[in-house]
């Protein structure tokens, strides 16, 4: 929900994670499941938008939202766009050779989430 555009607006409920971690019981498990399902429907190429106003995203908020998933498939689906962004974009601090550093061999054979 965004207060400047109430009709049909929405926002990530990433802070529900802390309700779960701290066992505050402010939200029900059903509300959390509904939130995860809603978020899966609103994913963009590189992540879940913060809210309905723009497509801006924050990987930390998306990761917190993914932690709400009660099954591995939903978790993987929520974090897949973050992985995609990391692999599609150039590094923030280019290496002296201009290439991405090689992936450690222990991770090189792992499939994308």
Automatic annotation (TrEMBL):
Residues 91-104 have a biased composition (Pro residues). Residues 89-113 are annotated as: Disordered. Residues 2-95 form the Glutaminase A central domain. It holds the Pfam family GtaA_6_Hairpin. This is Glutaminase A central domain-containing protein. It comes from Hymenobacter nivis.
């Amino acid at each position: 929900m965004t207060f400047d555009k109430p009709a049909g607006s929405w926002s990530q409920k990433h802070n529900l994670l802390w309700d779960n971690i701290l066992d505050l019981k402010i939200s029900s498990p059903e509300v959390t499941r509904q939130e995860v399902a809603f978020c899966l429907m609103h994913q963009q190429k590189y992540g879940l938008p913060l809210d309905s106003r723009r497509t801006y995203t924050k990987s930390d908020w998306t990761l917190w939202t993914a932690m709400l998933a009660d099954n591995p498939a939903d978790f993987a689906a929520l974090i897949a766009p973050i992985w995609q962004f990391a692999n599609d974009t150039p590094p923030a601090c280019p290496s002296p050779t201009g290439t991405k550093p090689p992936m450690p061999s222990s991770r090189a054979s792992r499939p994308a989430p």
